[in-house]
Predict the 3D structure of the following.
Amino acid sequence: MGLLNIISLHFQQVFHHRLRSLVWFFIPLLNNLVLILFWSGALKNTIADPNWTIYTATTYYFLLTIANAMLSSHIEEDVANYDIQQGELVRYLIRPFPYYWIKFIEEIPYRILQGSYGIILLIFFSLFFGTYIRITANPLILFFSFIIAVFAFFITFTIKMNLGLSAFWFKDSRGFFELVTITLIIFSGGVVPLYLLPQAVQIISYILPFSYTAFFPIIAVQGKLQIFQLFQVIAMQLVWLGILIGLNRVLWKKGIKKFTAIGQ
Amino acid sequence: MNTMSAIHVDKLSKSFRLYKKEPGMAGSIKSLFNRKYSEFSAVKEVSFSIAEGELIGFIGPNGAGKTTTLKMLSGLLYPTRGQVMVDGFTPFDRKNEFLKKISLVMGQKNQLWWDLPPMESFLLNKEIYQVSDTLFQKNLNELTELMEIKDVLHTQVRNLSLGERMKCELVAQLLHSPRILFLDEPTIGLDVLMQKKLRDFIREYNKRYKATIILTSHYMDDVKELCKRVIVIDHGMLLFDGQLNVIIKKYSRYKLLTLTFNEAPVPLEALKNHGSILYHEGTRVHLEVEREKSNEAASYILKNYAVADLNIEEPPIEEVIRSLFSEKKRQTHGAS
């Protein structure tokens, strides 16, 4: 009950800035609308691939918009610049609540609000252009897709949190953050679905954690994965989550000893 | 270690590694390959104990190491050397049981949600500190009454005045009934009236809850009115730890006689035989007299002149502290 109250209080804070979330939602939406336009032109003049038609492409980019809005965390700059460099971490450290979890709770309302905009848009679009949106109707697959989406959020959140914690050692990590973000976009299927990439790149991307943050949740909802493949995805997500949380603990324990609380 | 102490600090030190850049472009290019660092000692082997329920003043100039010490006591900073025990806990472990017993209030720092009314931040703290509904309601009523902020509980924090915000900050930090309070410049930026109200509140909280309180402040009135005992620190080193009246006796050799004569002119030449005249206007004179001779001088003046009013006062605490710093500086230079 206490935890629910804490989450609901954070919702109030986010609801106060309802337009901010809408503006942030427009960023992935516009990116992906451009990609839909690009592919609608490109696919008219190429040989039909049953895996990549105007219908699957439109569905993919709509789902990618939702995934970007709902599953992608952007806390690294907050953690690095405000909390560690400017010393805001102080107000979290003096409270009997773990920093990782309070930041997680702070992030949830933003993700739910921005994701909701995407879901509303998808429903609205489906009403008029229903044939362009093709997602699975199998409740079991949808259930496992939901589990995969939850783990996907945990993975992006922990990756970004770990990036932010690097500020304990490095004074300006913005370039490094950009580099990781671009890598994440490419290997998470943020430009094109990973199955369209060359074989070697596909293999690398299936090993890295990034594909489990957007690509696999999307193709799971599209119904492109069998039940046993869904389990494989969940297993890989758990492995990566274990590694990332382990790394998070090490970074936190080592880094916090270097914290100078400057600016407070 | 003194087992009765709420806070025990033993040879506590904290150093920071600072990058030293050589000036100019050459220095910048050099720094690409080789950087020089130096150690800066913010706190040097500081030791003290504070008993349960004590309210002590922790004073020193800017950069003396007060806030760094408070941060180590509250578990924010990892000490380079030495030991700290606060209510039986090592602060840096930041165990939940420890964090529930302490509170750190920083005058320059806003910990409330800026866009929401303070009540929402209070409710958040209630959940985070797992305060029961009954205790929360009791504490909220008591604290908001003491602080006179009942009517601003549902106003956005960004619309509150500095004084109201500071009071709300204090309430937010006290809702979980902390037994140990670290107050870092709680009255900074407040007007005189508000400073007094906050001081009254701190005194009342200390009395009512038997809370152990460490207070840092640049306003010596805060210290003078609230603290019987002071710890003075400068350049990271402890200069004095003891009763405030002892420091005054030890480091102020003079007392201030404020005299109002019945009529002008006042006997200035005669007064100069007893001490130095600091101020004179009309029938009012401020006379600085050696501490040991102050009673003798006062009785002589009363006996020989028509005096409407006479007050014997200690010099302002700022001056006492200043003379302590300069004496310690002289001692250090003398030793070196």
The longest helix of chain A spans residues 99-129. The two ends of chain A are 33 Å apart (CA to CA).
